[in-house]
Batch of 3 targets.
Target 1
Amino acid sequence: MSERTYKKDIELINTWFKEDVSKETTRPAEMLSLLFSATEPLFEIHHNFLQQIEHILVIWEGKSALHSNRSIGDILKDIIQWLPLYERLIERLPFILERINASFRHNKDFERVCRDFEARKGCYLPYTSFILKPAFHITHYLQIIENLSKFYVNNSSEFAKYLFIIEQLKQFNDEYSVTLNSLINLVILIELQRDITGMDNIVQSGRRFVREGCLLKLSKKGYQQRLFFLFSDILIYASRSASVQFQFKVHGHLSLQQIMVEPTEPKLGVNFCFTIYAGERALMVAANSEEERRIWLRDLSETAVSLSRINGNETLPFIPTIISSNELLDKIDNALSQKWIQKSENVSQMENIDKLHYRSNTMAHVCWHRNCSISAADYEHALTSCLSGYLLRKFKNSSGWQKLWVVFTHFCLFFYKSCQDDFPLASLPVIGYTASMPSETDNMNKSYVFKLQFKTHVYFFRTESEYTFRQWIEVIRNSTINSDSSQHTMQ
C-alpha cells in the first residue's frame, strides 16, 4: 500500500531530518521552519488516513467482526480537505529548495549534517527528493482513484463520489502544474550539481534540463565512455572520477549557440555515430543503438533551435572551469582508473562507499553503468510514479519465492523484509531492464508473474491479485525505458 510509504517518507523529514539539522547551530533556521511547519500537518493527516484505510481493509478481508459506516469513497473524499495544506507546501517549496541548496553549497557544517542524514540506512534517496516527494501526493492519489473508479461504474452512488474527487484533484493539479514542473527541474539541477565536479554553477535561473546519458566519444586512443548532460543552453560531458562521493569529472562543454549535429558513418568498427559541431570544434560520438542516436540528434537539434528563438536573451553566464583536450583526457582516464582500483581494494575506503550507497542509485550513475540515457520527461515520470506493496520475488536459478515489501520510486525497486522495516535490504534500478511476461522456456507455472531482465540478470515477480498485477506491470513498464510493449499486452 503506497500510503504507508507516503507516511514513512514524511516521517523521515519530520523526525530524522529535523533531529539532524536541529543540532547544527548555523542551520538556515527560517527555511527549515517553513519546511517543517508545512510537512508536520501532512504527517498527522497521513497517519490518521492510513489507520482508516487499514481498518477498511481488515473488514474487507473478513478479519474483523467490526463494521464501518464509511465507504472507501467517503474516506478518499477526505483528500479534498487536505488541498490547502498541499497548496501551502507547493508554494513554499521553490524558496525552500533554493535556500537549502545554497546552504548546502556554502555552509560546510550544514552540508555535513545533510550528508550524515543521507548516510542513514533508512534514507534511500537524496534529501532533496524526500523534500519534494510530498508535492506529488495529489498526483499519485488522482492516478489511484481514477483506476479504482473503474471498479465502481455499476455502483452509481459510489461512482459519483469518485468522479467528484477526480474533478477536484484534477483542478488542483492543473492549477499547480507549472510550479510542479519547475520544482522537478530545480531538483534535477540540484542533484546533478552534486553528481558533477569541475563545474560549480549547474543550478542557474532559466536553465532547463533536457537529457543525460552515455555516449562513446572518439579520442586519439579510440572511443571512450562519457556521460553527457544536455541542458537548454549547454552540453557538458564527463567521466566517472575516483571521488568517494561517486562524482563525475567534467571534461568539456559546448555552448548550444550555433551548434549543429549530423549522423555519420561507422568508424573504427563502431556503429550509430554522429558528429556535434560547435564553431570550430567537432565531437564525434557514438550511441549504443540507432534509437539512442535518433533521440540524441533530435534533442540536440530541437534544444539548439529553441535557444536561437529566444530573442534578446544571451546564453546564461558561464565560466568554464576546465579546458578539454584529448591528450589530457586520456591521461586523466588512466590515472582515475588506477586510483579507483586502488581505492576499491581498500577496506576503510569501502566502508565510506557503503555509507554512500544511495549515491550509486542516482540517475547519472545508473545511466553510466547501463549505458543508456533519460530525458526530462523520464525524470518527471520518476517523481510522479510511486507504488508499494508486497511482492513475491524469485531469481532466475532459484527454486523458491521470497515475500518482500517493495517500494518503487525514482526508477528503482527497494526491497524490505516487511512494511514495518526502516531500511531496505537491497535495491534494483530498473532503467535499462526489459519488462515482459515469462516465456514458455521460463517454466513459470504461476499466475500474475512478470519478468525483469538486463543482459544475464533475470528476476521474476508475482502479485497476489490481478488488480495489483496490473498496477505493478503498468508502473514498471513505463519506467524500464527498454520495455517491449508487445510482450506486455494482457488478454
Target 2
Amino acid sequence: MPSTDSDERILLAYFSRPGENYWNGGRRTLDTGNTEVLAGLISDRIDCDVVRIEPADPYSDSYDDTVARNVREQNGDARPDIAGGLPDLAQYDTVLLGSPIWNVQPPMIMATFAEAVDLSGKPVLPFVTYAVSGLGSTESFYRDLDTGATLGEGLAVRGEEVRDSGAGTDVDQWLRAAGLL
C-alpha cells in the first residue's frame, strides 16, 4: 500500500450493497457492491485503515425491496442500526466516508455512523457511487447532521463506470487535490 507524504492517519469507512443494482436503465446482480469497489481503489493508493459499515438488519438483494426500504428510512429520518462496534476516531486525522447515493442522498445508515462517532474538527471527505445524481445532496446531508466535521471535496463515480480504468484516474485526481497522494 502506498503511503501519504505525512504521518497523517486516515480512516476509510464505507457502506456498500451487493445484489441486484440499477445498471444503465436496467438491473444487474453484483457480487461486490460498487462502493466497495471504489473503496478498494482508494485504499490501494493510500495508507489507511478500512472499516466496512454493516447494517444490523441487512438490506435485501432485491433492488425494488431496497428502494422501498430506503424511501421508508428517508421519510422517517431513520437511523438504521449498525452491526458490530464502531471505530474510535481519536487516532485519525482524516476520515473518508463512502456510500452509494440512494434517492439523491447517502443511505440513512451513513447518518447513524456519522452521528455515532466523534468527527469534531476532523476533515471528512465523502466518496460516492451513483446511477443518476452524482454527489446529489451529499454535502447538505452531512452538514445537516452537525457533527462538527469539516466537510471537504467529494468524489462521485458512476456505479456503471467504477470498474473502468477511468475511475482510477478520478480517484488519483481526488486524492491529489485533497493532499493525500
Target 3
Amino acid sequence: MTDLLVDKTILITGASAGIGEHSARLFAREGARLLLTARRLPELERVADTIREDGGDVIVVQADTTVPDDLQRAIDAAVSRWGGIDGALNNAGRSQGGGRLAEVQDDVFDAVVDVNFKGVWAAMRAELRAMTAPGANGGSIVNVSSIGGTFGAPEQSVYGATKAAVIAMSRAAAAEYGREGVRVNAIAPGATMTDMMTGWEQRVPGIIEHLGSLAALGRVGQPTEIAEAAAWLLSDRSSYVSGMTLGVDGGTAPWPH
C-alpha cells in the first residue's frame, strides 16, 4: 500500500458489507484510523475484527443514519478517542426494489428517501459540525451517489432521484464550507458486485451480464474499485478537488456498447 490515508481518522457509514466493508479494509491498509458505523452490529464487528487482526486502529458504533442522535454519538466517540475526524465516506443506502413510478408505494418512497437522501444529509450535518468546530482542521467528505443519479433508469425513479439529490447537496456543501477547509465530493458507482447485486441477479437472471454490457469495459465493477476512488478523494492527493462527482462506472452508457 501507499500510506494514502496515514494519520487520518475516517468515518464510514454502512460499513458492514459491500462498498462500505471493502472501503474499510482498504482505508485501514492505507493507514487510516477508522470509525465504522452500520445498523447490523454483528456484521460490523466482523469487519472490525479482521482489520484489528491486521494491526488496524478501529472503533465500532452501531448507528442508523436515519437517527441523528446515532450519528452524533458515533462522531463523539471519534472525538473522544482521536480528537476529531478528518474524513467521511457516507455510504449507507438502500435500493428501491423495482416498480414503475406509479406503482411505488408510500412506505417504499419514504424508506428510500430517509436512508439515501435524509440519512446522507444528517450524516453530513454532524460531520461538518465536527470539521468546522474550533480547533478543527477541516476535512474531506465523500458521498456515495450512483450512476442512477445521473441518468434515468427504468423502475428506479425514486432511487435515482435520491442519488441525484446527493450530487446536488454535495455541490452545495462544497460551496458553503470550502473556505473552512472542507472538501465535499460525490462518487457515482456503476453496477457493482455487492450482495445487493447478487440478490438482483437471483430475481432477474442475466442482469449482471446485461449491466456489464452497458459499460465500455464490458463488465460490472468490484467494490474495491469503488473504494480506491473514494480513498483518493479522501486523501491529500486530491487537495484541489471539491464539488465534483466522480463516475466510477467503467464508462457506462444507457445503451450497450
